[in-house]
Protein backbone atom coordinates (compact mmCIF):
# COMPACT_ATOMS: atom_id res chain seq x y z
CA UNK A 1 0.00 0.00 0.00
CA UNK A 2 2.82 2.42 0.74
CA UNK A 3 4.05 2.05 -2.86
CA UNK A 4 0.73 3.50 -4.09
CA UNK A 5 0.90 6.63 -1.93
CA UNK A 6 3.81 8.38 -3.75
CA UNK A 7 2.05 7.88 -7.08
CA UNK A 8 -1.17 9.33 -5.71
CA UNK A 9 0.67 12.27 -4.22
CA UNK A 10 2.37 13.01 -7.53
CA UNK A 11 -0.96 12.70 -9.35
CA UNK A 12 -2.72 14.98 -6.83
CA UNK A 13 0.03 17.61 -6.98
CA UNK A 14 0.12 17.37 -10.81
CA UNK A 15 -3.65 17.84 -11.08
CA UNK A 16 -3.51 20.80 -8.68
CA UNK A 17 -0.72 22.47 -10.64
CA UNK A 18 -2.46 21.81 -13.96
CA UNK A 19 -5.74 23.27 -12.71
CA UNK A 20 -4.04 26.27 -11.16
CA UNK A 21 -2.41 27.05 -14.52
CA UNK A 22 -5.28 26.04 -16.84
CA UNK A 23 -8.10 27.81 -15.00
CA UNK A 24 -6.54 31.29 -15.13
CA UNK A 25 -5.72 30.78 -18.81
CA UNK A 26 -9.36 29.93 -19.56
CA UNK A 27 -10.46 33.02 -17.65
CA UNK A 28 -8.23 35.30 -19.74
CA UNK A 29 -10.32 37.42 -22.09
CA UNK A 30 -9.50 37.17 -25.76
CA UNK A 31 -7.71 40.18 -27.24
CA UNK A 32 -9.60 42.52 -29.58
CA UNK A 33 -9.85 41.14 -33.12
CA UNK A 34 -7.25 42.06 -35.71
CA UNK A 35 -9.40 41.17 -38.73
CA UNK A 36 -12.99 41.81 -39.77
CA UNK A 37 -15.45 40.98 -37.00
CA UNK A 38 -17.58 37.97 -38.00
CA UNK A 39 -19.34 37.41 -34.69
CA UNK A 40 -20.41 39.45 -31.67
CA UNK A 41 -21.35 37.81 -28.38
CA UNK A 42 -23.37 40.27 -26.30
CA UNK A 43 -25.30 40.33 -23.06
CA UNK A 44 -24.40 38.59 -19.81
CA UNK A 45 -20.79 37.58 -20.53
CA UNK A 46 -17.74 37.62 -18.28
CA UNK A 47 -15.01 37.95 -20.93
CA UNK A 48 -15.65 40.91 -23.24
CA UNK A 49 -12.84 42.22 -25.42
CA UNK A 50 -14.44 45.34 -26.97
CA UNK A 51 -16.45 47.37 -24.49
CA UNK A 52 -18.98 45.00 -22.95
CA UNK A 53 -19.05 42.64 -25.96
CA UNK A 54 -16.91 39.80 -27.25
CA UNK A 55 -15.94 40.41 -30.89
CA UNK A 56 -14.37 37.60 -32.89
CA UNK A 57 -12.73 37.54 -36.30
CA UNK A 58 -12.14 34.40 -38.41
CA UNK A 59 -8.73 33.67 -36.85
CA UNK A 60 -10.16 33.94 -33.33
CA UNK A 61 -13.08 31.66 -34.19
CA UNK A 62 -10.65 29.13 -35.66
CA UNK A 63 -8.48 29.29 -32.51
CA UNK A 64 -11.35 27.92 -30.39
CA UNK A 65 -11.80 24.14 -30.02
CA UNK A 66 -13.13 22.97 -33.37
CA UNK A 67 -15.63 20.38 -34.49
CA UNK A 68 -16.00 18.58 -37.80
CA UNK A 69 -19.37 17.31 -38.96
CA UNK A 70 -19.78 15.25 -42.10
CA UNK A 71 -23.48 15.41 -42.83
CA UNK A 72 -26.22 16.20 -45.25
CA UNK A 73 -28.52 19.06 -44.33
CA UNK A 74 -32.02 20.11 -45.33
CA UNK A 75 -30.48 23.16 -47.08
CA UNK A 76 -27.49 21.77 -49.01
CA UNK A 77 -26.92 19.16 -51.70
CA UNK A 78 -25.19 15.91 -50.71
CA UNK A 79 -22.94 15.26 -47.75
CA UNK A 80 -20.52 18.01 -46.82
CA UNK A 81 -17.61 18.24 -44.41
CA UNK A 82 -18.35 21.23 -42.19
CA UNK A 83 -15.83 22.73 -39.78
CA UNK A 84 -16.04 25.41 -37.13
CA UNK A 85 -15.86 26.14 -33.43
CA UNK A 86 -17.93 24.07 -31.05
CA UNK A 87 -20.67 26.33 -29.73
CA UNK A 88 -20.04 25.15 -26.17
CA UNK A 89 -16.40 26.30 -26.55
CA UNK A 90 -17.54 29.69 -27.85
CA UNK A 91 -19.82 30.18 -24.84
CA UNK A 92 -17.02 29.09 -22.50
CA UNK A 93 -14.67 31.64 -24.09
CA UNK A 94 -17.32 34.34 -23.57
CA UNK A 95 -17.86 33.30 -19.96
CA UNK A 96 -21.60 32.66 -20.08
CA UNK A 97 -23.81 31.06 -17.44
CA UNK A 98 -27.20 31.19 -19.13
CA UNK A 99 -29.20 28.07 -19.91
CA UNK A 100 -30.14 29.44 -23.34
CA UNK A 101 -28.91 31.90 -25.96
CA UNK A 102 -30.53 33.80 -28.80
CA UNK A 103 -28.70 33.40 -32.07
CA UNK A 104 -29.36 36.23 -34.51
CA UNK A 105 -28.80 36.22 -38.26
CA UNK A 106 -27.58 39.16 -40.29
CA UNK A 107 -31.17 39.62 -41.56
CA UNK A 108 -32.44 39.84 -37.93
CA UNK A 109 -33.95 36.31 -37.88
CA UNK A 110 -33.49 35.03 -34.35
CA UNK A 111 -33.84 31.69 -32.60
CA UNK A 112 -33.62 30.78 -28.94
CA UNK A 113 -31.42 27.74 -28.41
CA UNK A 114 -30.96 25.83 -25.14
CA UNK A 115 -27.30 25.56 -24.12
CA UNK A 116 -28.01 21.92 -23.26
CA UNK A 117 -28.05 21.22 -27.04
CA UNK A 118 -24.37 22.22 -27.21
CA UNK A 119 -23.46 19.67 -24.54
CA UNK A 120 -25.72 16.86 -25.78
CA UNK A 121 -24.38 17.15 -29.35
CA UNK A 122 -21.23 18.54 -30.98
CA UNK A 123 -23.05 21.55 -32.44
CA UNK A 124 -20.72 23.82 -34.38
CA UNK A 125 -20.76 27.28 -35.82
CA UNK A 126 -19.86 26.12 -39.34
CA UNK A 127 -17.29 28.41 -40.97
CA UNK A 128 -16.15 26.09 -43.76
CA UNK A 129 -17.65 23.46 -46.03
CA UNK A 130 -15.30 21.02 -47.74
CA UNK A 131 -12.30 23.14 -46.74
CA UNK A 132 -13.64 26.43 -48.14
CA UNK A 133 -15.14 29.40 -46.27
CA UNK A 134 -18.93 29.40 -46.51
CA UNK A 135 -20.10 32.34 -48.64
CA UNK A 136 -23.00 34.51 -47.51
CA UNK A 137 -25.00 33.29 -50.53
CA UNK A 138 -24.47 29.71 -49.25
CA UNK A 139 -25.68 30.11 -45.62
CA UNK A 140 -22.51 31.88 -44.45
CA UNK A 141 -20.44 33.42 -43.29
CA UNK A 142 -21.35 30.86 -40.62
CA UNK A 143 -24.33 28.86 -39.49
CA UNK A 144 -25.39 26.72 -36.56
CA UNK A 145 -25.01 23.09 -37.58
CA UNK A 146 -26.16 19.99 -35.75
CA UNK A 147 -24.79 16.51 -36.65
CA UNK A 148 -27.91 15.45 -38.59
CA UNK A 149 -26.60 12.25 -40.19
CA UNK A 150 -25.09 11.01 -36.92
CA UNK A 151 -28.33 11.78 -35.02
CA UNK A 152 -31.34 11.45 -37.36
CA UNK A 153 -33.66 12.40 -34.46
CA UNK A 154 -32.39 15.96 -34.96
CA UNK A 155 -34.13 16.23 -38.33
CA UNK A 156 -37.21 17.91 -36.94
CA UNK A 157 -38.85 21.33 -37.14
CA UNK A 158 -37.54 22.51 -33.75
CA UNK A 159 -33.90 21.84 -34.59
CA UNK A 160 -34.26 23.28 -38.11
CA UNK A 161 -35.41 26.56 -36.53
CA UNK A 162 -32.39 26.52 -34.21
CA UNK A 163 -30.01 26.03 -37.16
CA UNK A 164 -29.62 29.73 -37.88
CA UNK A 165 -27.88 30.72 -41.13
CA UNK A 166 -25.97 33.96 -41.73
CA UNK A 167 -25.12 34.18 -38.00
CA UNK A 168 -24.00 37.62 -36.92
CA UNK A 169 -24.41 37.59 -33.14
CA UNK A 170 -25.14 35.52 -30.07
CA UNK A 171 -27.19 37.19 -27.34
CA UNK A 172 -26.82 35.90 -23.79
CA UNK A 173 -29.75 36.88 -21.53
Automatic annotation (TrEMBL):
Pfam families: Oxidored_molyb. It comes from the Bacteria. Signal peptide: none annotated. Residues 73-138 form the Oxidoreductase molybdopterin-binding domain. Gene3D superfamilies: Oxidoreductase, molybdopterin-binding domain. This is Molybdopterin-dependent oxidoreductase.
Amino acid sequence: MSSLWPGRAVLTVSLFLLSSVALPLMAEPLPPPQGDVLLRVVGDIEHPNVGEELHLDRAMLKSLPQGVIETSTPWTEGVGRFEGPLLRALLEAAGTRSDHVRIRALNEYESEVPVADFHAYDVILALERDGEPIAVRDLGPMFVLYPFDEHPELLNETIRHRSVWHVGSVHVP
